[in-house]
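Backbones bend. We report:
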Amino acid sequence: MTFLILILFATTAFAQSDSPTGGTNNIAIQGGVGLGSVIAVVASWSRNESILWAILHGILGWLYVIYFAVTRQQN
């Protein structure tokens, strides 16, 4: 759970930068594939080893990452 919180803070910190007008730009959103989608695909592949599930979970993004973190079994 700590890992998930660190990822959320890192995404927020790196996705925003100061612009000359004083506002913030969401650079990560403009890039196409977000960090949540990448983590979801990797987590889905490690659990299911299925391309179809990985694509579906990549679309769901952070929702699947949170689900994965809550339901995974500790070793």
Remarks:
- The chain has a mean pLDDT of 76.
- The first helix runs from residue 2 to 15.
- The chain is about 70% helix and 10% strand.
- Helices lie at 2-15, 27-30, 35-48, 51-60, 62-71.
